[in-house]
Design goal:
The protein contains 13 helices and 19 strands. It has 525 residues and is an alpha+beta fold. Strands 12, 13, 14, 15, 16, 17, 18 and 19 form an eight-stranded mixed β-sheet that branches. A five-stranded mixed β-sheet has the order 9-8-7-10-11. It has a three-stranded antiparallel β-sheet with strand order 2-1-3. Helix 7 runs antiparallel to helix 8 and helix 10 packs across helix 13.
Length: 525
């Protein structure tokens, strides 16, 4: 069920998801609240009605402004390739403005990052003429305008908007001073620029040079107009692989949001509400250390606004100002809104999960279920055969422990044989690495899948240590009963235990089928 009443009136990106958690549409909005509610109006188009029929959930990411929302939307569409989106073409890249690192630097307007230099942008806001910014910079800062330095001066030098390295020797210090002013311009530190233009306007007006005074007056208006239309920000370094950690604390809850930037683009968001005990910094430190301990994609830098004890202090950074401070503040804002939007459902689900988990222990006569592994197989006409494993710690999903498997033995046929391979590979690896084994294995299927799992455990001498059950489905393909090696337990579909096991089965199915789709997509790309 989608809950829209707590979505904020902020700019950002929204992600509609189907019942399997698969992203089916991504959009951007100046006002997330207003835009998402529009989908449920009576007078929407037929195409929108088709989308709404498949909507089961929503996620959203707040951005500083509409420009950032448009860039993030493009990045996420490119990553998820939702079926209701029109895919962006390669030549629809957003433009940048770059100050080159040449001996005599230039200001260049480009959609491709082929230049060696300092990049600003990307600029995606349709309310703002990006080329006007470029032209304004060319007038404000007297860097060379020609692609190659000529042997004689040109009109730009006579107009006073080029230092003319063709006829003058320009010191590097002079260029560095101009570069600093350009950087100030993009970071909204443009008071000195405006003051200088105002002074030149007044000087020319006193000298009755009204035509030149008007030029300086118009330049000031152009700067103020651009500032009104869009807040310009320096993009995260395009070579960066960083994580930005935001958090929000209220009552006994800690909400953590981790924004992952890859090559300067925000491509992944992890969000979680947790109950915490003791000191907030200790809990935050413990959570992040666990999160990154077994994470293969540890970034070069983690930005956060709090001093915490870390396993690797060298990669932690607390920005005090500038662009990185802004993106940390934005992550904190996202954490706050995620908490406000999800608190009620979190509390309800926590209570239901706790009761259902305890009931499962009683039904199976298994007082210790600290770790549960759940397996599913996904294939299309015996092609693109994959397996998925999800994990629950103390009854709660732990996505850090999820695993994907590509079926390697081409001679095998059918889900039972595929299940045998996947379970064998998983526990051989865990034994070799001396990892903590699960108390329970749940397979998506009936007695044949159970026997396959038990046979593997016997070969590995684990059958006395790990119990195995299956979740079978009825003719309507809905979770129906628990199957053990000796009996069947029919589930009451109105019970909390049924809902709990149904969600587990839906999660493992979503995880496996999403991996299958990703694998098939790679073949066609």
């Amino acid at each position: 069920m989608v809950h829209l009443e707590k979505i904020p009136h902020n700019p950002g990106v929204y992600l509609w998801k189907d019942k399997y958690g698969v992203v089916i549409y991504i959009g951007k909005a100046k006002d997330l609240f207003n835009r998402t509610h529009q989908y449920f109006n009576k007078d929407v188009s037929i195409k929108t009605k088709e989308l709404v029929k498949e909507i089961s959930d929503i996620d959203f990411i707040i951005t500083k402004n509409n420009n950032d929302a448009m860039v993030l939307e493009a990045n996420l569409i490119n990553k998820y390739k939702p079926k209701f989106n029109i895919l962006l073409r390669e030549n629809s890249n957003y433009p940048y403005i770059v100050v080159t690192n040449e001996k005599d630097p230039r200001i260049v307007y480009t959609k491709n990052k082929n230049y060696d230099g300092k990049y600003y942008g990307p600029f995606a806001n349709n309310d703002m003429n990006k080329y006007d910014i470029y032209n304004l910079l060319q007038q404000l800062f007297p860097l060379r305008k020609c692609n190659k330095v000529p042997k004689k001066k040109c009109l730009y030098y006579d107009m006073g908007i080029c230092l003319a390295p063709c006829i003058n020797k320009i010191e590097n210090e002079q260029y560095e001073n101009i570069k600093k002013k350009i950087n100030d311009f993009f970071n909204n530190n443009d008071k000195n620029i405006l003051n200088d233009l105002k002074q030149k306007e007044e000087e020319n007006a006193k000298s009755l040079n009204f035509e030149k005074a008007k030029i300086y007056h118009d330049l000031q208006n152009s700067i103020n107009q651009i500032k009104t239309n869009a807040k310009i920000n320096v993009q995260v370094d395009s070579n960066s692989e960083i994580d930005v950690v935001g958090y929000y604390v209220k009552d006994q809850y800690l909400t953590i949001v981790i924004h992952k930037y890859i090559k300067g683009k925000l491509l992944e968001v992890n969000k979680q509400i947790n109950e915490y005990f003791g000191e907030i910094k200790e809990y935050l430190s413990s959570y992040l250390n666990q999160y990154y301990l077994n994470n293969k994609n540890v970034p070069k830098t983690i930005y956060i606004d709090s001093e915490i004890e870390s396993l690797n202090k060298e990669i932690l950074s607390i920005p005090k100002k500038g662009n990185y401070k802004q993106i940390v503040d934005n992550a904190n804002l996202n954490a706050k809104h995620y908490f406000e939007y999800n608190l009620l459902s979190f509390e309800k689900n926590k209570d239901k999960t706790t009761k259902a988990f305890e009931e499962l222990k009683v039904v199976l006569n298994e007082p210790n279920l600290n770790l549960i592994h759940v397996f599913d197989i996904s294939n299309l006409f015996e092609k693109d055969k994959v397996g998925g494993m999800i994990a629950l710690e103390n009854g709660i999903f732990n996505k850090k422990l999820y695993r994907k498997f590509i079926i390697k033995n081409e001679k095998q046929q059918g889900d039972v044989q595929y299940m045998t391979e996947v379970i064998s590979r998983q526990y051989k690896r865990m034994i070799d690495e001396k990892q903590i084994l699960p108390n329970l294995i749940i397979v998506d299927g009936g007695i044949n899948q159970i026997h396959a799992a038990i046979d593997v455990l016997k070969q590995l001498k684990l059958d006395k240590m790990i119990n195995v059950i299956g979740l079978s489905k009825d003719k309507k393909h809905k979770t129906d009963k628990i199957i053990t090696n000796t009996n069947e337990i029919v589930l009451d579909k109105k019970s909390g235990l049924y809902s709990y096991l149904f969600n587990i089965q839906e999660e493992v199915h979503r995880f496996a089928i999403t991996f299958n789709r990703q694998k098939r997509m790679q073949i066609f790309e």
